[in-house]
Structure formats: C-alpha cells, structure tokens
What we know:
This protein has helices at residues 16-29, 54-68, 86-92, 123-132, 135-142, 146-164, 176-185; strands at residues 3-6, 35-38, 72-75, 95-96, 100-105, 108-113, 190-193, 200-206, 209-215, 223-228, 233-238. It is of the alpha/beta class. The chain has a 6-stranded mixed beta sheet. The protein has a 5-stranded mixed beta sheet with strand order 5-6-7-9-8, with helices on one face. Pfam families: Metallophos.
Amino acid sequence: MTTLFISDLHLSPARSDITECFVRFMRDEAPHADALYVLGDLFEFWIGDDDQTPFANQIRSEFKRLTESGVAVYFVQGNRDFLLGKRFCKQTGITLLADVTTIDLYGRKAVILHGDTLCTDDVSYQKFRRTVHQPWLQWLFKRIPWMIKKRIVAKVQSGVRDDKSHKSLEIMDVNQEEVEKVMAQYQVTLMIHGHTHRPNVHHFENAQGQMTRIVLGDWYQQGSVLRVTAERCELQTRPFTA
Ligand code: LP5
Ligand code: MN
C-alpha cells in the first residue's frame, strides 16, 4: 500500500527532460500505487482546459492511462494551474480537490494544499492571488479564445516576474503562524504541501502536540516524489536520465 505525492513539475514543451521523467514516473512507478496526489504547479502555466496542443494532449493521455489502470489520482490547483478545471478532470478521470483538503493517510489525518496560501508575508502575491481567483474574472477569462488568452498571460507574466525578482527568500517562504493556524483549524498533526521548492520534513511542537510539515520538491533538476506507506514517509528523487 503506497500513496504518492508530487508537485511543482512545471511541465512545458520547452523542458522535454522533465516531461520524459514524468512519463517514466507515470508508466513505471505510479501504476503500482494506490493513489497519486498532484499538489499543484503540474504545469509551467495552464491557460485553460481548452488547450488542445499536442503537449497538453500528451499529458492528458498519461493521466487517462493511469486512472484507467485503477489508480486514483487527485489534483490540487497551484498558483500556475489554478485554471485547470472540470473539463480536464472529466477527460482524464482525475479528481479535483478543494484548495485545502484533509485526507486519511493510513490512519493519520493530514491536511494537503499547494502551499502558496501559507506565504502570508508575500503581500503582493496574496493580493494578486485574490484578483485572479475572482470568480467573475475567471468566468470571463474562460470565454476568451485560447490564442488571445495565451498573449494576455505572457503579458501579465512579464510584470509578475519583475516583482518577484525584488523579493527576499524569507518573504517567499511559509509563515509559521499561518501553518499552525491551518493545522489547528483542520485538527491535524501532519501537513503536506509544495510551492516553496524547499523539500524537507519539519518537526515542531506546539500546544496541539508533535507536528510534522512535509514540503515536496520541484522537478527542475530531477524528479521529486513523496512515498507514503503505513510504516513510513520518504522524500525521494528520480534522475532525469533513464
Ligand atoms: O510560481 P513562482 O514560484 O514562480 O511564483 C509564485 C508567484 N507568482 C505567480 C505568478 C504566476 O506564476 C504567473 C501568473 C500569470 C497569470 C496570468 C493571469 C491571467 C488572468 C487570469 C484571470 C482569471 O503566481 C509569486 C510569489 C512566489 O510564487 C512565491 O510565493 O512571490 O508572486 C508574484 O511574483 C506575484 C507578484 O508579486 C504580483 C505582481 C502583480 C502584477 C500585476 C498584474 C496584474 C494582474 C491582472 C490580472 C488580470
Ligand atoms: Mn507554486
């Protein structure tokens, strides 16, 4: 019995090394698991479920193949694929989860999330996030032709990149108070998230008891997988070369 967690792959047609590692993972490793959780930022950027490029279809077919083999696949949106929606899920058989969800991991309750909402010191990002998560704006955006959306995203991305380059690493990390607040709110002692690209297992103690926060790694230089069984939790890497 194994449950796998991945996040922050940032898949794009420009990075065939990441895509190849992902395809190997999906075909050789994931079929042996009970469930796969993708905790956001699967894509470098997902413009919308109307993406019909060969690349988008290749990724869809990998998920479809996996879910058809009987593996349950769950998806939490990241800050780069918050526009991935119901259509993609229907086409692939994956299940879209709420931004913050609790799951039962072999008898232990855990809260899972992408992790961007924990970075409360990053005030400009949180403001930006609130804007792009406005339901009316997303409703409108989804109705724009794909090629025009692509141009809008490229334009917004360049402005966003400039702002990010001025931020400190501390500002872009999680806020410990927010972590503890979310864990208390969901009454869990285990949290799993990605986003910060700082893979680690953090242990700390507070009034609620012994807490564990597992941070998933990104896929820039290698694959990164959290394997959980009833006995253990292990952050592992996968090389890009087969
Ligand atoms: O992912 P990572 O680590 O590189 O950076 C994130 C934060 N950045 C983002 C930005 C997205 O990756 C790119 C978004 C393009 C969006 C196009 C939207 C099209 C409209 C859709 C409408 C439904 O998420 C980064 C964090 C970092 O994580 C660490 O936490 O710091 O945040 C930023 O850099 C954001 C800036 O601080 C905000 C700049 C505001 C620019 C104003 C743009 C106007 C928005 C108008 C929207 C239509
Ligand atoms: Mn992210």
